[in-house]
Amino acid sequence: MMQSSGGGSLGNISKQQIEKLREMYGFNKPAHERYFLWMKNLSKGDFGFRFSDKKPVSKLLGERLPMTLELMGVSLILACVIGISLGVVSALKQNTMIDYILTVIAFSGVSVPVFFIAIVCIFIFSLNLDWFPTSGAWTPAVTFSIKDHIHHLILPSLVMAVVIMSDIMRYARASMLDVIREDYITTARAKGLRSLQVILGHAFRNALLPLITIIALKLPWILGGSSILETVFQWPGIGSLFIEAAVARDYYIVMALLMVYGGAVVFAGLIADIAYAVADPRIKYK
Prior knowledge:
CATH architecture: Orthogonal Bundle
Shape: globular
Number of domains: 1
CATH superfamily: MetI-like
Largest sheet: 2 strands, antiparallel
CATH class: Mainly Alpha
Radius of gyration: 25 Å
Oligomer: single chain
Strand order of the largest sheet: 1-2
Number of strands: 2
Number of helices: 11
């Protein structure tokens, strides 16, 4: 901890040096002036720089964002495929042992914190079984290879997929239960259509709209909520970068990442609107 000395310094830094640093970083200006200056620089694509090494924030985002998008994309695909499938099965097998087991799995995934699931998976699959690496996106001091990268990607993506999948399962089950009780499903069965054709061609498509909403809402959550998971697995994405910047009080990085998260919310809403029109031909945008 830095303490004041009789010479008027704070640790090894004099007051003159502190004032010089404040002037260099613009911290001596009023808050509103600093904000408008930041917005002006932002319009030019200048997000500022990291305090520790003066590295541009835009370059940091360019290095870290693809890693988070990769982890997020793989996790979301796994969660949608597995979660929707299990949710449909749970709805079709309502009040059976299969339904009860899947419901317990879904509520467990929602209730247990993601960091606890990550630690348990590392303990079992990395430390005990030695199936996957404990952390990182590649093996240090080894030539980069796609196989090695995928090997590091599997465990964190599966952990994130479990958390996302739990919500999707619950909504898929509830949505399918609402749809399969409708009169048009009964009519389709009465016409002699095969059960698979009724479920996939009629029931599932009409159950998609609530699922599109929950999946779209998950996009910004995954992007922002990946901070804990990336920190546990030491994954070099923007989530772990946000934690590092917050601890170091690196305001330029924090503000840039908040802009990214805000943009993700807007982008998720746009994707949802487009997906509504694709899933339901009755919805048209003029």
